[in-house]
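Chapter summary example.
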Amino acid sequence: MNTATMTENTTTLTISPRLAKSVRRNIKERVIELILMLAALSAVFTTFAIVAILFYESFGFFKTVSLVEFFTGTEWTPLFEDAHYGILPLVAGTLTTSLVALAVAVPIGTIAAIYLSEFASHKTREITKPILELLVGVPTIAFGYFALLFVTPLLQKVYPDLPGFNMLSAGLVMGVMIIPYIASVAEDAMRAVPMSMREGSYAMGATRFQTAIRVITPAATSGIVAAYILAISRAVGETMVVAVAAGQQPNFTFNPTEGAATITAYIVQVAMGDLPHASIGYQSIFAAGLVLFAMTLGFNLIGHVVRKKFREQY
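The structure predicted for these 314 residues follows.
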């Protein structure tokens, strides 16, 4: 009786090879899921850490400088003896160079995306798109010197009074630099439009151009807007091109033919100096960085709302 009972218990506790393999596989999947979750959380943690540092350092700055002066002042000279802390000159320079860049990149990038998606042959697309995306790999300092030493003298032949440092040449080169961002993302969005929509348009008698403009582009608006927001964020955050070609003199002007400083250029200028850690000049770069973060966040939120609106319509 005891022998029979022991044999029965042994049989009951034995795990089949298939079940053991399934258990090991589930454990591996759990470990992989945990690793992926930690990777995702690391990105979130990094973002929150950056924001926390900006707020912490900016808090010390705003103990000395009032918010009213900071957001309404038109002079930015935090490193001078007669210091002024109005951020508007840096904001004006950032917005002006970004608008010039977008005026170049948006139409050219959109046209390039339409051509690559709807008109270019497969061979042409496979050759053209990688070449276009090579612009992303060019160091931005090279673009800066290209703007200063080539584009600016070229513009001075048309506008003789154009100064050596100006926002126009910096913005134009920035526009060329961010064309691949718009062209690549927008082209991917257009190619994701179902072929049935194209075939339906052709069946109704529309030409290839009419289909591309009136059917494909509206249907891919969500992705195209995402490309524009990516380009705006890239333009607003650009550093070396504006630092080299636009100058580093903070002027409150929206005239692109004049020189000015941007938020990123000022941050680079001060961060490379020898200011004490707790000084007001050092803390000013965190206040400027906080404004830049708020601008970028605002553009992304607007883009999210616009994408959601067009996604609901189409």
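To summarize the output: Residues 10 and 100 are 79 Å apart (CA to CA).
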